[in-house]
Amino acid sequence: MNLHKDIEHLPQFKKAVITIGTFDGVHQGHQKIIDQLKTEAKKTGGETVIITFHPHPRKIVHAGEEVRLITTIEERIELLSAAGIDHLVIVPFTREFSELEPRDYVETFLKKRFNPAVVIIGYDHKFGKGRKGDYKLLEDYSAKGFFTLKEIPQHVINDSTVSSTRIRDYIQNGEIGNANSLLGYEFNFEGLVVKGDQRGRTIGFPTANLELTNEEKIVPDNGVYAVTVSFTPHASRLTLKGMMNIGVRPTVNGTKKTIEVNIFNFSEDIYGEKIRVYIRSFLRKEKKFSGVDELRSQLEKDFTAANVILNEGSAE
Read out DSSP for 267-309? Predict the structure, then answer.
């Protein structure tokens, strides 16, 4: 995949077959759109081009609104590359860009910069200042010979079971099994291992305390999860099993939300390392125990439950 971040110096695409969107999550609904894009390109002998935006348009159009992403821009690049498209163009979404009149958007942005042969877009796609541009306007330009316009099937757009919004809700509610099913892969995030209070090692469950590497990344609901961890110590990539707690640790009167991962059968010093955590399944809600002994007993049960799930590859 060719990645383009400078829209002032784009190549001359060959019979570009284009679609446009934020593609947060690159979930199974997005995959259907990508399949349609690739099928059309194969039919016409053209190149597939996805246009996406960074930062997320809501962050600019609705200044101050908190935006929580399923996938960071780096993760989107990784997933779209794996999907086998030819070109990914990341357009800097600025206030000035958001105020382009719809006809300027089509003529000076879409046509002039990309010269598309085919545009594949949803019937409900909105663009330009005030989101006044719509599918009907694109049909007008298509009729004038600017490009061939193809509609993303309505059942794909309206499929309420697969949407970024629904996936975000599942993740925030701790329904990881449902989120993973719609994503088509295990929800994951990257974190930096930082110093904690090292309380876990005193009860036999040492943890890696994580700080998210991107503050916009969505965080699952408080609770305990079965996870796998991937990182690259000593130039040798490892993937290990573990369990993760997200929450305030009420048993020890904690007040600050933390993310802690107990990596099974692992004792190396990884402070300062970046690791990626893949969440397989939700185990239980966070709760306050009567003391350290009851907490340790529950962690032993969590360890057993996580191993069963991770060893059998089953989801919640």
Answer: ----TT-EEEEEEEEEEE-----SSHHHHHHHHHHHHHHHHHH
